[in-house]
Structures are given as structure tokens and as C-alpha cells.
């Protein structure tokens, strides 16, 4: 988890996370795991999207060069 730019917000977040962990550690771990999975999937989607745009750019450039 990235720290917040505001130190007070970051401190409060740490406190809340600690309380949540103390209250129900198993649920906390499950939520963390699900969050990590979602972040990984979002990263993969972004990488695929970037790759697709790069392929389209190459195709467009090739088409333009054919007509010169």
C-alpha cells in the first residue's frame, strides 16, 4: 500500500488497518489478497492495452508507408 501524501491521513490509515487486523485477521488477509489480485489484473489489462496500441501504431505506420 502506498503511503498517503498527507502524514496525518497516513497515520490514521495505519491505525484503522491495525484495528481491522486485530478484530478479524483472517478477513483482513482475505481482503488484502483480493486487493492484490485486482491490482495485478489491472496491471495486466493495462499492459495488454499498451501492447495493442503499439501494434496498431505499427500497422498504421506500415499502411502509410505503403502509400508513399
TrEMBL record:
GO terms for cellular component: protein phosphatase type 2A complex. It comes from the Eukaryota. One of its GO terms (biological process) is signal transduction. GO terms for molecular function: protein phosphatase regulator activity. InterPro entries: ARM-like, ARM-type_fold, PP2A_B56. Pfam families: B56 (PF01603). This is Uncharacterized protein. It comes from Lithospermum erythrorhizon (Purple gromwell). The lineage of its organism: Eukaryota, Viridiplantae, Streptophyta, Embryophyta, Tracheophyta.
Amino acid at each position: 500500500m502506498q503511503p498517503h501524501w498527507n502524514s496525518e491521513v497516513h497515520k490514521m490509515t495505519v491505525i484503522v488497518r491495525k484495528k481491522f487486523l486485530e478484530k478479524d485477521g483472517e478477513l483482513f488477509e482475505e481482503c488484502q489478497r483480493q486487493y492484490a489480485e485486482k491490482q495485478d489484473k489491472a496491471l495486466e489489462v493495462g499492459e495488454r492495452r499498451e501492447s495493442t496500441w503499439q501494434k496498431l501504431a505499427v500497422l498504421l505506420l506500415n499502411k502509410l508507408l505503403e502509400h508513399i
